């Protein structure tokens, strides 16, 4: 599966760690736009966007959580924590 990270996409003028960029990554994985659909990755990026104040990310994260099992949600949360630790 192709994986994307912040450096792989560009949003005109958006800083590399902005809520909007994280939200865009979440949408890409949630909808499977240019990548395989991956709710764990989407949840991770929505978590990070929500942490930075994006209200829509909280809503999307809540919606996709209904499609995920407990282990998938835990993995998404772990990945978000890991990302924060590295960045």
Describe the protein in words.
The protein is an all-alpha fold and 87 residues long. It has one domain. Helices cover 62% and strands 0% of the residues. The protein contains four helices and no strands. Helix 1 runs antiparallel to helix 2, helix 2 runs antiparallel to helix 3 and helix 2 crosses helix 4. The model has no long low-confidence stretch (mean pLDDT 88).
Describe the secondary structure blueprint for this structure:
Elements: H1 19-31, H2 39-51, H3 55-65, H4 70-86
List keywords for this structure.
single chain; 87 residues; mainly alpha; 4 helices
Compact summary:
This protein is mainly α and 87 residues long. Helices cover 62% and strands 0% of the residues. It contains 4 helices and no strands.
Domain count: the total is 1
Low-confidence region ranges:
none
User: What is the gyration radius calculated from CA atoms?
Assistant: 12 Å
Principal-axis shape equals: globular
What string gives the helices and strands in order?
Answer: HHHH
Number of strands: 0
